[in-house]
Amino acid sequence: MVSESQRRPTVRVSEMLAEIAIRYNYEELKAATRDWSKGRQLGSGSYGAVFKGEMEDGSEVAIKMIDLGALGAAGQTEDMAGFEEEVKNLSKFRHPNLVTLIGWGKHEQFRYLVYELMTGGDVYDRIQKSRRRDNPTPFIWYERISALLDAASGLSHMHNSKPKAFHRDIKAANILLDRP
């Protein structure tokens, strides 16, 4: 028999995993993207690019490269303490409609965020493909509504969590799909 004082505190697995974000070294990320190959680039923005990566265990990820120099040129600052705090906060979010942050890294003026890979593209591209006259790819109304409801559910989770988080750049091109 175990007395109340001898019992271990009950910790749910989801709580233990909530703040885990793997810190990757630069060489791992460089190898995963085949030396930042243009052929592995999924997209780019004013502060960096996103690459498809294949980790040592064979898992496929999306690696977001953030150029601190570009942030500084745009009048924004991102110190390392702020970056690590953001990683800690982002790694707490677990929701079926949010892309999971797996890990992070840093090298020189660059910071890296490693996310699960979403293979279905984004809502903007799906809409554009459905409008093509030569070879339309259907993106029917109930799929569109479903994608929007899922996005709203994920945003609601972020806004109602502690600490609160806000996306700040929600648009069709930033709503990713998990299947084509």
From TrEMBL:
ATP binds at residue 64. InterPro entries: Kinase-like_dom_sf (IPR011009), Prot_kinase_dom (IPR000719), Protein_kinase_ATP_BS (IPR017441), Ser-Thr/Tyr_kinase_cat_dom (IPR001245). The keyword ATP-binding applies. Keywords: ATP-binding, Nucleotide-binding. One of its GO terms (molecular function) is protein kinase activity. Residues 36-180 form the Protein kinase domain. This is CCR3 protein. The gene is CCR3.
